[in-house]
Predict the 3D structure of the following.
Amino acid sequence: MDFKKFYDLISDHEKLKYLDVLLQSNKKLQQDFKLKVSIDPKIQVEDNNYSLSFAQLVEYFKNSFEADFSDVNFTDFDWEDIYIPRDRYVEDWELVENYCCGLVSDLFISVKDLFIQKLVEARYRELLAASIALYDVCENLDIDDGDYCVADCIFDTFYSESNEVLKFISKKIENVSALNTEIVDSLLQFFTFIFSEYENKNFGEKELETLIYIIMLKIEDSSKIFNLFANNSFKFFPRISDFLINKHSNEDKWVDFAINHYKKDRTIAEKLLQKLNKTDSEKFISVAFSLIKNPFANKDNLIDLPIDEVYYTYEYINRFLLPMINYKEHKLLFVAVNLNLANSLNQIENYISVRDYLSLEQKQLFIKKIIYKELEIKVYIVENKLDEAKEILKRNSTLNNLKELIRPFTTIDPDFCFNYITSFIDEKIQTERGRDVYYQIACLLNFSRELKGFNAKTLQYSKKLYVSNTRLSALKDEFIKAKLINPLNNL
């Protein structure tokens, strides 16, 4: 095979990989490459960009991103360009949503190229300006999504793709051994712009903060940046503020900072709790309570809901706190954390650990707030209120959830469980049809076989259903698959 045929068979990826190896190891080839290859003007800032202020540089990139993003039309498309799966039905809006999100992903190929170029050329001032511009443009998108109402998905894709670009650049910078001497000045311009431009509004871009934090770790002297943050009350970037205060100030200053900013950053919250638990029990309890739900409050909303509400609202902060506390020293907090964990994780063990400390009124308030019906049933059983527990079961049973709802009764009243399951199945066979229904019934019957002393009775009941519903071929098929019936014995 001649070279041309061989070359044409090689993928572009392999060609570029080979070229990259040659360029990295050959200085002469690098010079020749720079002379003969030009950079796409769409992603090149003029060489005299240092005559621009940082704000002008941000504006330049904003205009560039807005121009590129506005070129995409999410309303005028050809259905022939949309991928339609042949093996399943997909709603039109979902097809359009996938298509539009794909258009957004395609846009970010050139965005990523721009960031890579700035990183390779060590033009960190431009890289930082482009990062702010990208964040700002994606935050303020005006999307026309036509008749299919897919704007939310398009917006989320812009946001996730911009985050992916910043994550990619962050990983690359981690591998850079040394940054150029202009990086501190570039960061000072970056932070000065943020503190000025976002003075009266929130700036909460986590991936951008991660990128800056990685750069900060590579700087020997960050004292000027610390002074700038101090003069601006450490308003933004809690993780970087945390790093700067630890490096340039004392422990008391850090505690003052953390008290004012712990709700903005998970790491700071955890560090503060650990420190206060050793030094100031009263403040520890106060901070901890500000981060969790009060299981007895009239409203479920947190006071001053933190930015990272998923972390604080659900079980994570409660899990973090639990090993640090006990009933003797932290009575109310210990009770609240265990009840929150019981509710968010569907764990009766946490409820049992504090039930003796609860008044009847508190128990009733907690039951009203229970998320999972399984947990509500377990609580009533623990409180020896079987009638209430059975009532919850009857009001909420479905084919999908019956196994979990009835499971707490299996060790205390297997007769009730068997009778309830068989009565439930009798009703469903009369009112519902379909293979999925029969599959769920077969699963329930196998669950019934596990009840102590009811294996034979369940198989006998299964055979009765099999014989009396000869027209339901799908039911018979599911019973055979579930090994409830041996067809050779029922010919």
